[in-house]
Amino acid sequence: MAHYRNNCPSPITIVDTLKQAHHLHKSWGKKLKQNITATQHAMRTFGVLKICKQCDEKEGGSCCGQGIELKYNAVLLLINLILGVSFPKKNYSPNSCFFLGKKGCVLIARHVLCVNYLCSQIKRKLTTDELIQLQNIAGEELYTAFKLHEAIKNFIGYNHEP
Q: Considering the entire predicted model, what is its pTM?
């Protein structure tokens, strides 16, 4: 059965709507997951995750400090819920970001500060080419997440930023 959407002169069937939904999922949902996976892979490959873990365990420091979670708004957290993230009930460490768990960040889609920040130790240990490659890969993740975030925000009329 055809129905009309937004006073559109041509009928839209559920089959058409499903095709649109699959197209959007393929172009945005899968792209976001692929870009996030690519960033995580690059960070692992270049040793960034190892450096962060050593810093946290041996030096007691973490760039994932208390208060970083306040940068997150409801739309970015909604994207994480859609991606299947379960939020913690309480802080793993009282001096750390609320989303920092035993094995690192529990979020899949992260704030630009969390994706883009590279401390001086990381900058010293990675080559210039590795830094450029990592920043380019992370940039793709951030661009995709931003576009999706803004589309959802506009769709639902969300205008509350932290």
A: 0.79
